Amino acid sequence: MKHIPIIPVPIEEAELALFEERRKIYPRAQKGWFSSWRWVLVFFTQILFYGAAWLSWNDRQAVLFDLVARKFYIFGLVLWPQDFIYLAILLVISALSLFLFTAVAGRVFCGYACPQTVYTEIFLWIEAKIEGERNARIKLDAAPMSTRKFSLKFIKHFLWITLALWTGFTFVGYFTPIRELATGVGDFTLGPWETFWFLFYGFATYGNAGWMREQVCKYMCPYARFQSAMFDKDTLIVTYDTARGDPRGSRNKKVDYKSAGLGDCVDCGICVQVCPTGIDIRNGLQYECIACGACIDGCDQVMDKMGYERGLIRYTTEHALTRKLDDKAMWKRVFRMRTLIYGSILGLIILLAAISLALHMPLKVDVLRDRGMPKITETGAIENVYRLQVMNTQESPRRYSIEVKGALGAVILNNVDIDMGAASTKAFPVRVRVPAGVLETGSNRIRFIVKDLDAPEINVTEKAVFIVPR
User: Fold this and answer.
1) Range of the structural domain that residue 315 is part of
2) Where is the 4Fe-4S ferredoxin-type domain positioned along the sequence (predicted)?
3) Phi, psi at residue 447, to the nearest 5°?
4) Last residue of a domain, which of 324, 347, 376?
């Protein structure tokens, strides 16, 4: 048999990318109702964030989370580690609020109040002021490096970094008194932890809002992944009306486009150009959509110029779109049983939390019995030693009295009146004596009553155990 040589055929190498290459997005500026509301939220959140740290209350910072002293100051309220329940309640309220807002209006928090959205909006505004609007920024990035390009980029990044560092400084100022922090920054005496968080939070703000932008919403934010579990067909979402808009196509304003078989969409691409995440809402709802409404404002402007009815892209529900529901019927379904249950539970928790805070006792007492054996006196009386940890959460010095109840003839041998400084905690040893024969051998229940001498309505009763040896 004749041998036929096998000639190897070269295989063309192919490079397979595991991740989609990022295409830089240049959001186009637009004006409209939703854009105005987004800037209202930007101003509100940033005035609150940057301003609250500088407010004073009772000769101290009004809002301060002092982790070293384990005290949280929120205006006139002082919370201690024993008030951890309020943090749990706050987390529950936040979770239920997220469920409620998402069930009603989708990712509306992401579009208007999320820090990533807010700072991206601010950074984009700075970029537009320095480099120009969308087309100017595209041309600048495509141009070779020049003195003008370098100068514009340098100024932009300088302003970005300055704002980011100020943001990091303000963030740390809620945990370290901000005036002390400013002094430490000025004379380079910041501690290692303050320095780390100051730079870390500033770097995170600069990186997320300046460079990563929509990448955070698309790939890092977990909410984008599980939001669909909280949506249903009666949730308000940003939607393109396909039945009205398609077939798409450009046209002259004076042409009867309907006779030409076209829909209302002129295929201008404005909805894509203004989108901060770069999606085309006409392809349907996508997880990248942050419900900011920018495409609605952009489309409405085009509809106005063409003389068409607004609302080709609008906030509506899937049921309203497919079943042609009017606004009244749509809103009736938006506030359905699911959202009413979320709202009722949320309102009840907020009400109970408010009542609890209003009735918050500014005095806390913990009782710990000494582990040593009880002392028996010559007359047969029994003595137990306790340590009372007393916390005065008021911001004024207080004087308290201590009483013991639950055993006939029980007395406190050492001083029963104690002085406490403002917002302080102190441990006091207390010796309690009970006459012989009053209590049974073993463990017996007694009560300590600590009372404010100037305000008797402020009092705390704590249970304890009195040991009678066999």
Assistant:
1) 232-324
2) 256-284
3) -135, 140
4) 324
